[in-house]
Amino acid sequence: MGFLTLQSLSKVFGDFTAVRDVDLSVAKGEFVSLLGPSGCGKTTTLQMIAGLVEPTKGTITLDGRDITREKPSRRGLGIVFQSYALFPHMTVAQNVAFGLEMRKVAKAERDRRVKEILGLVHLAPFAERYPRQLSGGQRQRVAIARALVIEPPVLLLDEPLSNLDAKLREEMQFELRRIQRSVGTTTIMVTHDQAEALSISDRVVVMEQGRMTQIDAPYRLYERPATAFISSFVGKMNRIEAVWRGGRAEAGAVALPGIAESLPEGAPAILTLRPEKILLKPAGQGLLDGRVASRFFLGSYWLFNVETPIGTILVSAPNQGGEPAGEGESVALDWPPDSATVTAPAQGAAA
Amino acid sequence: MHRNGPIALFFHGLVVAFVLAPLVVICLVAFTPENTLSIPTTSFSLRWFAAIFEHPDFVQSFYNSLWLATLAATISILLAIPAALAIDRYDFPGRDALNGLFLSPLIIPHLVLGVAFLRLFALIGATGSFFWLVFTHVIVVTPYVMRLVMAALSGMDRSAEQAATTLGASHWTVFRRITAPMILPGITGGWLLAFINSFDELTMSIFVTSPQTVTLPVRMYMYATESIDPMMAAVSALMIALTAAAMLVLDRAFGLDKILVGQK
Amino acid sequence: MSGRRALTPWMLVSPAALLFLGLVVLPLILTVILSFHAYDHTSGIQNSFTLKHYLTVFSDDYYLSVFWRTLRLAALTTLICAVVGAPEAYVLSRMSDPWRSVFLLVIIGPLLVSVVVRAFGWSMLLGSAGLLNQALQALGLSPVRLLYTETAIVIALVHVMLPFMVIPVWTALQKLDPMVEAAAWSLGASHFTALRRIVLPQVSLGMLSGSLIVFGLSASAFAIPGLLGGRRLKMAATLVYDEYMAELNWPLGAAIAIIVLVANLIIMLGYNRLVETRARRALG
């Protein structure tokens, strides 16, 4: 049994089921992300853990203790809100000290711990500033410090990076992970950004329409998405319609290698293939010939739309310095068999 | 980016002159050394300001109004904050009706309120009571306070309250340490607006004040219907100065246009 | 827990609610009842009920003339406020910032100055030996009689009510995208056409709301007709005051007050109805 467990947790608002029979077990010290598009129930799940929303059904246990009906002020969890929810009329130090004050921690001890945590988030020089005098990234770190200073058993992060601009967001991802590692607090983060979830989590939970559809380590989620939805939501994916014939997938009389489950002869199949797994070769030297319809330069890699007899296929290639095949040029596509997956379309369409 | 043409500016000048004329004239006449209402041309005098203090009834009325407005604004705040919290934060039967009731003094002419209070006080034997006078003013100023406090409540970031709750604060602590400081501008603005409205109120008060509780506007009205002399100008100039000072505070703190115009 | 939660809002509103029930609803009911009480000049309020006061008000020439004057002056005030206030709000909205806030303050700030003070200021300006006549005489013109005329009442009413017209029109103009006017120009509309076809329709609701407030407040104004109308020119509010304080006929005064209240409520509720239909139409 995990440190924090959710058992068949559900939340119904009127006739809308926001969260449906969610089961999750989080180990101590683990960093788990709840990933999904808006309206998938991830925030509601977080709010139920925080105690801000009362579950319709199910239980939440923390370290073996049932906290399902406990007041939010008694749970002692650290929460970082999407808006940061800093107290605008208090200084950074007062914001951070608030939770300790509520716990009746003595002044000297309070000051020491505030100082320590502000040091950890690199905000020591800003202790006497007010939130409005800080940048977005600094406010975010105040919110993290305020949540962590009470030494919560679990830290809950609600879209913590969504209010930051792209460059800062990337920096803060690593910063967040560093802080979490150094205090070792069990952390649950809600996010709609797959890159964010993949880069800093130990495990990612994908939510779709109130359900958890896959719980896995980031790389496995990426390599082996359980549903069509996940394969399209996490990274880019080619989906090629094929037919199962003679123990392999065929499209337009071309055999497509891939890891396959056993399908009945003549059944329709879907081959899924990540763009970066495909190698561009000179025409005639690959599995499939095509023509570059369009090409985009994205800095660290190139993106191609290649027209082939079996449809347009997205290919990405790392930027090696030289200029690769241009628009209109003929190329061949090749991929190692174990990088593609063949499934029955029904399974893919389930989501 | 759009500029006003000369005709527009001329029109604007006329409107501004019209709006300021009576106020400017009062302030000038207040300093006249003459016995008649005239604009001082050669010398300024404070004799009519001094004359106010020879009318103890005016001084008494000033203190009456000051006390009345202070008490009415304060009581109104104390009643309006919890009421606004309930209406903004909870859904309960009768919520809209109560909200309408609290704002109703805005659409009931003060004349009607005055007549109604007079009837009630005659029946319960409260005529001329300062205590009851205070509550009539609470009724008149509460809509202004309610509007500002409600606007402050609905405008604040609710997640700050949730954050405080999850950090272990009780309902009362959340209100005292987070909600109240965050809506303080609305509360202060509401108090000042209530104070000014109570201090200036005439039409309702004239029905419910007794000779002992006469407020300054009522005293001035009575005096002005009998005779017009420069002392009235001096009293009026003092009231204008007082109002201007309050306006300045309101404007500095919150932006007067927001308080008077923004009825969000 | 849910039981306590349901009680909390009631506990929070109850002090204010009780005060308002006791000091708004109850006195109004008592006043309505009072207006039906019979009255005798020698023995005062009787314990019998009658419709006489309402019939008197609606049949006696004196009362009818006061009501007619009240409606006429309130309408005239409203019209002048609309004609002056709406363009002024427009001019204000086109100013750039330090001036805009300064003049907005100048125009709406007087709202906070006691109406007695403002009425007194006008009586000084308009009196027979007042500053306006002094100026006319200095220019060699003959003095005019303004104080204690309907003109004086309307001038002062416009002065007091103007902010109530400027505020809603200003608010409506604030919501207006400043670029829509430019868009109209770019499509070939003249300034006047753009104003009439693009700006005016969008601020008309603000003007309407301002007009109703101005009309309602003017019709129940007390200090202005009291100080600038003298003893002869009565309006509804000064009439009620006379019935109460001079005639001591409270039931009759109450009847007039109730008529003023009902007229006011009809105007306000009619306005709400109008705004709602407009909003519904705008939303499709």
UniProtKB/TrEMBL annotation, chain A:
Residues 4-234 form the ABC transporter domain. Residues 340-351 have a biased composition (Low complexity). InterPro entries: AAA+_ATPase, ABC_SmlMolc_Importer, ABC_transporter-like_ATP-bd, ABC_transporter-like_CS, Mo/tungstate-bd_C_term_dom, P-loop_NTPase, Transp-assoc_OB_typ2. Belongs to the ABC transporter superfamily. Keywords: ATP-binding, Nucleotide-binding, Transport. Residues 317-351 are annotated as: Disordered. It holds the Pfam family TOBE_2. GO terms for biological process: quaternary ammonium group transport. GO terms for cellular component: ATP-binding cassette (ABC) transporter complex. SUPFAM superfamilies: MOP-like (SSF50331), P-loop containing nucleoside triphosphate hydrolases (SSF52540). It comes from Bosea thiooxidans. GO terms for molecular function: ATP binding; ATP hydrolysis activity; transmembrane transporter activity. This is Fe3+/spermidine/putrescine ABC transporter ATP-binding protein.
TrEMBL record, chain B:
One of its GO terms (cellular component) is plasma membrane. One of its GO terms (biological process) is transmembrane transport. Its main location: membrane. Keywords: Cell inner membrane, Cell membrane, Membrane, Transmembrane, Transmembrane helix, Transport. It is a multi-pass membrane protein. It is found in: Cell inner membrane; Cell membrane. The chain crosses the membrane at residues 7-31, 66-87, 99-124, 130-153, 174-196, 231-250. Residues 62-250 form the ABC transmembrane type-1 domain. InterPro entries: MetI-like, MetI-like_sf. Belongs to the binding-protein-dependent transport system permease family. This is ABC transporter permease.
From TrEMBL, chain C:
Belongs to the binding-protein-dependent transport system permease family. CysTW subfamily. GO terms for cellular component: plasma membrane. PANTHER family: ABC TRANSPORTER PERMEASE PROTEIN, INNER MEMBRANE ABC TRANSPORTER PERMEASE PROTEIN YDCU-RELATED-RELATED. It comes from Bosea thiooxidans. The lineage of its organism: Bacteria, Pseudomonadati, Pseudomonadota, Alphaproteobacteria, Hyphomicrobiales. Keywords: Cell membrane, Membrane, Transmembrane, Transmembrane helix, Transport. It is a multi-pass membrane protein. GO terms for biological process: transmembrane transport. It comes from the Bacteria. This is ABC transporter permease. The chain crosses the membrane at residues 12-39, 71-90, 102-126, 146-170, 205-228, 248-271. SUPFAM superfamilies: MetI-like (SSF161098). Residues 67-271 form the ABC transmembrane type-1 domain. It is found in: Cell membrane. InterPro entries: MetI-like (IPR000515), MetI-like_sf (IPR035906).
